[in-house]
Amino acid sequence: MVPVSYYLILSGILFSCGVIGFLIKRNIITIFICIELMLNGVNLSFVAFAAQWQHLSGQVFVFFVMVVAAAEATVGLAIIIAVFRTRETLNVDHVNLLKL
Amino acid sequence: MTPSLHLWLIPILPLIGAAINGFFGRRLSRQTVSAVALTFCGAAFLMGLYVAARFSSLELPHAEYLGHWIRSGNFMVNFEFYLDQLTLVMLLVVTGVGFLIHIYSVGYMWEEGGFYRFFSYLNLFMFFMLTLVLAGNYLQMFIGWEGVGLASYLLIGFWFTKDSAASAGKKAFIVNRIGDFGFLIALFLLIKHFGSLNFSQVFSSIAQQPAETAGIGLLTSIGLLLMVGAAGKSAQIPLYVWLPDAMEGPTPVSALIHAATMVTAGVYMVARSHVIFEHAPNALTVVAIIGTLTALFAATIGIAQTDIKKVLAYSTVSQLGYMFMACGVAAYSAGIFHLMTHAFFKGLLFLAAGSVIHAVGGEQDMRKMGGLRQYIPWTFMTMTAATFAIAGFPPFAGFFSKDEILARAYEANPAYWFIGVTTAFITSFYMFRLWFMTFFGDYRGREAAQHGHPAHGHGHGGHGDPHESPTIMLVPLMILAVLSVIGGWVGIGGRFEHFLSPVFGEGATAVATEALSRSTEITLMVISVAAAVLGFYLAYVLYLKRPELPQKIADSLGGLYQAVVNKYYVDEIYADLFVKPLVDGSTRILWHGVDQGVIDAAINDTADGARHVSDSARQMQSGNVRSYAGWVAVGGAVIIAYMIWMGVR
Amino acid sequence: MLHLVLFLVFGAICVAGAINLLVQSHPISSALSLVVVMASLAVEYLLLGAEFVAAVQVIVYAGAVMVLFVFVIMLLNAGVEERTKGSQVALILGIPGVLAGGLLVAWVLIERTGTATVGLGALPGFPKTIGNLLFHDFLLPFEITSVLVLIAIMGAVVLASRPEPKNPEKES
């Protein structure tokens, strides 16, 4: 019998790591990976609450999150490829042409 | 209940003329414009005569109520007209002399541009002056007061493209306004303490009060403030400085406004307010002193002027001083008498001067005139009549009125009389100086023209010999000359004073001690005639017999003479004392400080602030994806925090 | 007891993987660390009884999405991350801020959940039941997500395709 809060703490840690990586990493692909990490953390908390409240829709929602994450990853990576073709770099600091 | 005389028509008729000429005059021919102007002015004059004809059947004072104007609590001001003997005199003088000057102007201004504008302004002036004269309360009088100031400004600056004319117009209006400020304060005091501005009501309230003999009480203050207003309008010390400059305007303007009518508004106002002054003897003394001093002061300046119109301007100031002196010793009817005769001969002097200027092609400097009497005989004869009148030679008009004033002044205080006689001597001197320099001797204009001196004024260049003016200009001169001769005869035997006595009461109550004995009167008369003759003789010697003497005298007097020629540097003193600090202060405080520093700055700083804010805000759009990521994280954190807070509550 | 031990073990692996992800400088290492995280998360799901979700996690998430990531990394020949001059704001403000935020959220959630506990396999998520839910209660979102996936496929193909080489001699 594990308190639900433990699951939630774990989920929170994963999410925070994701945010930190999202902020400090300079490689575009790494930033995407951190986004996936965030999503995973959220999934865990969904499942934990589903278990607590005995409601299966939590798990169904996880399913949907995964689908959307997949779609998002696909399109995002395609964009990265397109940007790489023009800018020849994966460093996000060099993709700064939209400066005001 | 006497039936209405429709007094409101008298001011309205010139107003209609002004409107017609003002709006449509540009498209009308000169004949039409002059016809319109003369018709409406003449109609006003005829109505004045009609009123005079009906006068004996009227119950006086005759007040006509036209409509209400201000109703504020208990305070009420109406559009009303007031007719008594004083009004009648002023009315006839204003409309009569005004009409003659209108006729003269048709000839004088015929060649000028802006013909319709001139007559529109002239009629407008008549409207305001008649409003002033016929007013039944102080506020309506004030409308007329301000309005004649406006008309004066418009007419002085008639040739507004000329800098000096435009400045002179401004100067006149501004100095007038200073006087008007005093007038306004007096009105406020009247409203506060008497609750009304209506003549009948105010005067009856005041008559019930005791006279203020000590210090400066309410009535004395009102009197002094009214005098400030009169000093502005009637060019007394210290507000006379605008009148000599006003000679920039066309000569008919000088004749009408600055000799016969507008400048006499101050005297009229003081005479109308005599009830106030009778209850404030200290104020009355101030009036007398100002009048006397101005008379002497202006006369001394007049003897050194070389511009013919400037001499007449200073002469006007001096003669107005006489009128105020008269009012100041409570000889109101004498003052009004002199006002009337002055309108005749001063108006004539100005018109004749205009004729002279017209004859010599625009030259106004007397040193370039001379010997004109064979070229312009009619002008010469009429001007002679006026000169003798102003000098006070019997039996011309000026003698009677001036003598009346001097006699009453002697009754009050011999000092006034002495200064008055001295001024009369100086007046005679400078007037005959003008007369000799202009009409006698050799014509100096030819060699001046050969030396290439340009003629100023409204010159049409030198065109050969001086020529007489057209008949339309000569007829008014002749009519006024006749009046200058016989105009004083209404005063013989005290008939004029008797006519005005219902207005002013029987003689002065505050000032005079006892009436003069017959012999004293005759002695005084002889002395004043002698002074006039002495002036004539001195002018004859200096300007006809030994014309080299004036220059020698001037050189020997050196600095004193320079001071007189430069009008005692009064204009310069005013400029340094008042104008310069005001302009500097206005520039530094109001313009740079308030307008630029506060108002402009507020707007500019608001715009700048918006710009700075957006400048800082756009730092967010750095193009740096990671900073965007950072902001996204911050935004997300804020929302989560908010949701937690909502949940926790 | 077993539940707690298993939870802690795999939780530790998750966290270790996450931190490794942050620390590594080569993106391929980060991707592989994420696979580790996903795998251990799958075990956590199993502990909670969500069998289907765990299976899908491994098959789809770790097996397809991460493979895609790895392919792209290798395609673009991403190298070690270099240090560039960028915004230091994220570093200075971000990490402490996030940690603080995370702790706060955790504290709140703990307050709310109180002493609720879940047992081993608390809520069995059989494929059959989940399938029922998907096709009955959540049919609309299901269909929409399938359209979403279709759009994503088409978008990816278009975005990533090589542009047509421009041939000046070719007409029309």
Detailed description of the structure:
The complex is a heterotrimer of chains A (100), B (649) and C (172). Chain A is mainly alpha-helical and 100 residues long. Chain A has helices at 4-24, 28-53, 57-87; one strand at residues 2-3. Chain B is mainly alpha-helical. The N and C termini of chain B lie far apart (89 Å). Chain C has 172 residues and is mainly α. Helices cover 74% and strands 1% of the residues of chain C. The model of chain C has no long low-confidence stretch (mean pLDDT 85). The chains are: A mainly alpha (100), B mainly alpha (649), C mainly alpha (172). Strand 1 (2-3) of chain A pairs antiparallel with strand 1 of chain C.
Short description:
Chain A is mainly alpha-helical.
Total helical segments of chain A: 3
Based on CA atoms alone, the radius of gyration of chain A comes out at: 17 Å
Helix content of chain A: over 70%
| Tally of individual helices of chain B | 26
Radius of gyration of chain B: 30 Å
- H/E element sequence of chain A: EHHH
The counted number of beta strands of chain A is 1
Topology summary:
The complex is a heterotrimer of chains A (100), B (649) and C (172).
Chain A: E1 2-3, H1 4-24, H2 28-53, H3 57-87
Helix pairs in contact in A: 1-2, 2-3
Chain B: H1 9-24, H2 30-53, E1 62-72, E2 75-83, H3 85-108, H4 115-134, H5 138-156, H6 163-194, H7 199-207, H8 218-233, H9 242-245, H10 251-260, H11 265-272, H12 274-278, H13 281-302, H14 308-328, H15 332-359, H16 377-391, H17 397-412, H18 414-439, H19 445-450, H20 471-486, H21 495-504, H22 518-545, H23 549-557, H24 559-565, H25 570-617, H26 625-648
Antiparallel strand pairs in B: 1-2
Helix pairs in contact in B: 1-2, 1-4, 2-3, 2-4, 3-4, 3-10, 3-15, 3-20, 4-5, 5-6, 6-8, 8-11, 8-13, 10-15, 13-14, 13-18, 14-15, 14-17, 14-18, 15-16, 15-17, 15-20, 15-21, 16-18, 16-20, 17-18, 17-22, 18-22
Chain C: H1 2-23, H2 27-48, H3 51-76, H4 89-113, E1 117-118, H5 127-136, H6 139-160
Helix pairs in contact in C: 1-2, 2-3
